[in-house]
Write a structure and sequence with these properties.
The structure is a homodimer of 410-residue chains. Helices cover 39% and strands 13% of the residues of chain A. With 410 residues, chain A is α/β, with parallel strands linked by helices.
Chain lengths: 410, 410
């Protein structure tokens, strides 16, 4: 048998738009022994996690819980549960993850309408509101923070337009939750999907979501009790039911029964990921949401100051830049992948490339959650400068860290 | 803000049919810092995990990887990817998890045919082969170990019948993998789903699967490159494509690209769960598959001897008993839930109830993976005896542990 070595991952500074470094307290939480899924001690932890998620999502929604899968499992759970085949779904696209919403919604049988804007820009809320009035969709699905381009879509005012036409407003806040304000209730968002492996600094594998009673009303019309759980003689079908949700694993009407006091058996909740999420939320709430958002802005400013002092050009419209992702144009003549490889191999620092039309054109540097620290920003700037010089890029050596230290007021 | 306490789970002896206690080495592995998903060091760990999964599944299949979700995400990934709407799917049902296969297959748009047998029994392979010849399904979906009844379906001979009619043979081995032989290649199984939180003793949240080239051929006919990953001008559609897979998250044609050297971006692999699965597989392979299966039989025998010495009656046909789950009839006049609660609250030991028609009729005691040990079996028997006496059940006090110690040859 081939010997597989003891696990011993090399320490990394992870400055991508996710996954980023996990909080040490979260890593420790995952090392605790498991509890049974219906052990009252475990269901208490589940309930506490729901309570903390409500605070994170700034909502009084009853339903706020994780889906057991990576972020896109949360997106698909919301879309497959809320979109009935033939429903009209409007998706404003300004980057790769808008396309992902289309991709998933199409597989749910949606009649899809898109509006698109150039990568590197976003829509004005008025443009989106106008499209809502024109197309009268059943669901509007919108990305809050588009990591592929580093842009953030303003969301205020869009919820009102959705209510006018009785559309459900679904927001993918995978990349912003915990790093930037996501005001679910104030912004009249009907369902929000958050991500763990970015600004929450919990490893990938859990997708916190929340949705309100408008969304729940649609779910309940589609709900069936699982066949293997019915008592003899019970039938899953009755008058007035809407179309069956085409996934069992991602069926929110079943998931909410599992997360309710009824604890109706569905999947086996991922104990260790629940421990991790609970601990990550404790860390976030102990820091304070506003304080955490402010911290992200401080380190973004230092990173940007350093990059610009190096003579690098930021990609995209600065008016809608995500505070937690900074996109940098790869200078002409420089091999972007070679720079990334040298950063990782020699310095243990990871930054990201991008997708589709931006592949090979930009680097993406995240400042998210636990990775968003003075130490990481300074080490990354110093390493990037050295690697760029090594690649023959002309830059004023030493200026980047001066500028970043200035930004920090050192 | 309500103070949420430091995580500090009470230690438990978990003798359910899953989730069971996790291997301490696995818990430790999850506490290591994360690596980026495309970090070569991480992709090496992914490849090593695939190699170990092939050994676990006793297969030379190219594809053996985890789906990022709990066991039923793996089941749904296989079914939604292999079942095209309108396909005929044959499901032999002998307990709750057969109904789950029906539930999921129906949501995939299958034309479903079932055969059923009484809970507590299984089918002969000949009965299933005859049904295959009669119904000529596109897919046969079958549970290997049915934890709801504690029965195990013999699988030899069924694959041959599937090949005769060109059906794909899909096996849910969630409850048996790592505890009982699952000979994917020898038994001509086209796709197998394993579970982590049972005989592998890795926490729930990862679903290892494998499938062969017959299954892959069907996937490839349905494959589309995700819209957000296409280069400008590329189109996902072309002549000869079969129906789009109705899930994105669980689309095996995309997942296998992510797990291939191409590493085409899909979800963000759950780093910590991958660490956990890799470590769990190392533990299994270090013990040795045959040795591990033998260990499970030893502790089952001691448990059964103890239970019978207490005057308890085992549920179901002994000829097809699962070696890793023992179902016990709740004696008349005894409140089964009260017994379970006292075991948990006073002794820190968890055993399970069952579902549907067996709810309140049987207890289910698992002897799985790390939980399957002499210590756990003896402590469980001693505690159960005390709790039953406390509930007024007449039994020959002391005999259970005598019998178990005899079985162990002490």
């Amino acid at each position: 048998m081939k010997p597989y070595k003891d696990l011993s991952p090399t320490p990394r500074i992870i400055m991508t738009p996710g996954p980023v470094e996990a909080e040490p307290r979260v890593l420790r939480a995952m090392s605790y022994p498991v509890l049974g899924q219906f052990d009252p001690e475990f269901t208490d932890l589940m309930n506490e996690t729901m309570g903390m998620l409500r605070q994170l999502f700034m909502t009084s929604n009853e339903w706020a819980f994780p889906v057991d899968g990576t972020s896109r499992s949360g997106i698909e759970a919301v879309l497959v549960s809320l979109i009935e085949p033939g429903d009209k779904v409007l998706v404003p696209i300004y980057g790769r993850f808008g396309h992902l919403l289309v991709e998933i919604a199409r597989r749910c049988g949606a009649d899809i309408v898109t509006i698109e804007t150039e990568w590197g820009t976003v829509f004005s809320p008025e443009e989106i509101a106008a499209a809502i009035r024109t197309h009268q969709p059943n669901v509007l699905a919108l990305v809050h923070g588009e990591t592929s381009t580093g842009r953030m879509q303003p969301l205020e005012g869009i919820g009102e337009a959705c209510r006018e036409v009785d559309a459900l407003f679904v927001v993918d806040a995978v990349a912003t939750i915990g790093g930037v304000k996501v005001a679910t209730d104030d912004w009249l968002i009907d369902a929000v999907i958050g991500g763990t492996q970015k600004c929450l600094s919990v490893p990938s594998g859990s997708a916190p979501i929340t949705y309100n009673s408008r969304a729940e009303a649609k779910l309940l019309k589609r709900k069936r009790i699982e066949q293997g759980l019915r008592m003899p003689g019970e039938d899953g079908e009755h008058e007035g039911l809407s179309a069956l949700i085409q996934s069992n694993y991602l069926d929110l009407s079943q998931l909410q029964d599992y997360w309710s006091p009824a604890r109706l058996n569905h999947h086996t909740e991922s104990t260790s990921m629940l421990y991790a999420l609970r601990e990550g939320l404790r860390v976030v709430l102990e820091e304070g949401l506003e304080e955490r958002f402010a911290r992200h802005r401080v380190h973004e400013a230092a990173l940007v100051a350093g990059l610009e002092a190096m003579g690098l050009k930021l990609f995209g419209d600065p008016a809608c830049k995500m505070p937690v992702v900074t996109c940098v144009e790869i200078p002409s003549g420089i091999d972007g992948e070679s720079v990334r490889s040298m950063l990782l191999a020699q310095f243990g620092i990871e930054i990201a490339s991008s997708f589709g039309p931006l592949k090979g054109r930009i680097w993406r540097i995240g400042t998210m959650g636990y990775s968003c620290s003075k130490r990481n920003v300074l080490l990354t700037l110093g390493a990037l400068e050295a690697v760029l010089l090594r690649h023959g890029f002309e830059l004023p050596a030493g200026d980047a860290l001066h500028a970043a230290l200035d930004a920090y007021g050192v």
